[in-house]
Amino acid sequence: MCAAPTQGQAIPAGVDVEKETVITGKVVANDGQPVGGAFVRLLDGTGEFTAEVVASGTGDFRFFAAPGDWTVRALSSSGNGDAKVRPESNGIHNVDVTVSA
């Protein structure tokens, strides 16, 4: 059993998005439908594993990171997918990951 935390849409109270870099998004299938329960990994600019969460039932995920080059990788029974994101500053940065078999 994985200990990765399940995600939701709301940013937790007390998080100052002007001081933090938040990477958030949704895991979706090719038809645009959300994919819940996917394992979502955050990889740094060299491809090294940094963190993992479980997407919510509506496919939502969230990471607190630093500005830089990141890959978000989703692994699910519906398939796998990657998306690149490059936050250059603090704030909320959205990226959706499409998975396919």
Automatic annotation (TrEMBL):
InterPro entries: DUF1416 (IPR010814). It holds the Pfam family DUF1416. SUPFAM superfamilies: Cna protein B-type domain. This is DUF1416 domain-containing protein.
